[in-house]
Amino acid sequence: MSELEGPSLRLDVPRQEALRHAVEIIAQAWRSFDRFRPEEPPLDERVLALLRSGLPEQGVPVHEALNDAARVLDESIAQPRPRYFAFIGSSGLEIGAIADALAATYDINLAVDARAATVIEQQAVRWVAAFVGYPAGGGAFTSGGTISNMTALSAARERALPGSRHGGMASRAAAVYCSREVHYSITRAVELLGIGSANLRALPIDERRRLRPDALAEAIDRDLAAGITPVAVVATAGTTLTGAIDPIEEIAEVCEARGVWLHVDGAYGLPAAGLPSMRPAFAGLERADSVSVDAHKWLYLPKACGVVLVRRQEDLLAAFAHREGYLPHQRHELHAVDITLEYSRPFRALKAWLAFRVHGAPAFRRAIERNLAEARLLYEEVGRYEDLEALAPPQLSIVPFRHVPPGVADVNRHNAALAEALQADGRVYLASALIDGEVYLRPCFVNFRTTEEDVLALVEIVRELGARLAG
Fold first, then answer.
1. What are the Cα distances from residue 430, in Å, to 336, 401, 402, 426, 441?
2. Which helix (H) or strand (E) holds 294?
3. What angle separates helix 361-382 from helix 349-359, to the nearest 10 degrees?
4. What is the pLDDT of residues 204-255, one digit of tens each?
5. According to the model, what pLDDT value does residue 112 have?
6. Residue 71: CA atoms inside 13 Å, Cβ hemisphere, count?
7. Which residues of 76-99 are buried (b: 16+ CB within 10 A; e: fewer)?
């Protein structure tokens, strides 16, 4: 038999049959996400056996493999469930999942010109910018906030220190400025860019946990006097810890007066800027040099779907553009690799494009407004009980609170244990957070499936399990 006789990677059943099986698994998952789950199932013997297996040397029937995949997925922590309140989750919007399947099928690489797909990405970038109210001159889809932030800071570094992408930092002294509650992705970015985390100025915050513009101005002026180059200021539009929104307008004043790049990390909170009622909280956004937003957070899309936006496309070109023999610019047009970090770029933009086309921007605004209302409801409910204590009124959709029953000597240890008990119980999924040395439960509402019933259940279950732990 010739080695070239035909493809070996064929399914054991017709493709349409395998596809129907996969579609039913997806449909069943969607149905299960419509309501809360009473508990999280443990890993069963079949899954445990699969986890112990080595590299398969023999294939199994596709139906068997798909059933195993469905079992593994069902026994995993799925963020689209309406009572998943930990971290900042994603909802797996249905049209986004369909878009991912289509994009994976065509397997388009958007590193270079991909004709219609390239134009769709550019259009989707403009749509995201229009939704949040940012005057973008360019941008790209990324894997998420970490890469978006690093992309923006790469452009900021090249503008502040021309030639640094080629010559490196060497003996150049530089600094980046942020609040002390900035996301760790900023720390990673300054480390990878050679600026160094020792030169990340984590500055004081005010009573609303926002970066203080006066402290920022003092820090920049102090560095300038010492011969240190300010590369960028990072304002956060929705901190991961509490949802605080830095005062962008005042920070922009400080930056513009000193010629310093302003980046707004809006990975979590920036979609709320699309609501007229919330727009004042993001005043000054249009003055930023760059912004980042994760569509897989508060635009409800499946991971990974981040976006980096810049006022001037040429800033990205200065940081990333290049010419290689294997990437000829036949049409005298720039490729996506001239403005981004990645070479293998999936068609992430398709899910944002399809979602806006299918639902329209107003539907997203209503869903975000509903999440904001759920956060306010939780804050009000916590205030009704003497054994619960909230940190502060929510600025966005994060509401840190804790259980403070009488007779508990160590409230921090109690709430840390309560977070573990909640995860083990499975009726809601919640994590703890350390804020000013105190342990809080930290729910975040970014799911379009979450209801008022789910919010009230969260309070009830926290009090029930907390009382049990307190004895």
1. 38, 12, 12, 9, 7
2. strand 290-294
3. 90
4. 999 999 999 999 999 999 999 999 999 999 999 999 999 999 999 999 999 9
5. 87
6. 16
7. eebbbbbbbbbbbbbbbbbbbbbb
Residue at token pair 């006066």 = 214
Q: Residue 132 and residue 109: Cα distance in Å, rounded? A: 27
Q: Are 351 and 96 in contact (CB under 8 A)?
A: yes
Residues of the chain with pLDDT under 50: 1
Tell which residue, 395, 141, 186, has the closest CA to residue 280: 395
What gap in Å lies between CA 432 and CA 443, rounded to an integer?
8
For residues 340 and 112, the answer to whether their CB atoms sit within 8 Å is no
Q: What is the pairing mode between strands 229-236 and 174-179?
A: parallel
Give the three-state DSSP class for 176: strand
CA distance 91 to 42: 22
Crossing angle, helix 313-320 and helix 145-160, to 10 degrees? 90
By CB neighbour count within 10 A (0-12 exposed, 13-18 middle, 19+ buried), where does 436 fall? exposed
Condensed to tens digits (0 to 9), the pLDDT of residues 332-360 reads 567 888 899 998 999 999 999 999 999 99
- Alpha carbon distance 410, 25 (integer Å): 46
Q: Is 48 helix (H, G, I), strand (E, B) or coil?
A: helix
Determine contact, residues 165/151, Cβ cutoff 8 Å.
Answer: no
Domains along the chain with CATH numbers: 108-358 (3.40.640.10), 362-470 (3.90.1150.170)
Residues 6+ apart with CB under 8 A from 325: none
DSSP per residue, 179-202: ETT--HHHHHHHHHTTS-GGGEEE
At 274, list the tokens. 């699309």
CA distances from 399 to 161, 377, 394, 442, 443 (A): 40, 10, 6, 6, 6
Q: What's the Cα-to-Cα distance from 378 to each of 222, 245, 349, 431, 437, rounded to whole Å?
A: 43, 20, 34, 16, 23
d(CA 307, CA 295): 7
- What is the per-residue pLDDT for 40? 86
Instruction: Give φ, ψ of 99 to 5 degrees.
Output: -60, -40
Query: Of all helices (H) and strands (E), which one includes residue 307?
Result: strand 306-310
Pair 212, 270: CB distance under 8 Å: no
Residue 433 pairs with which residues in a beta bridge?
A: 440
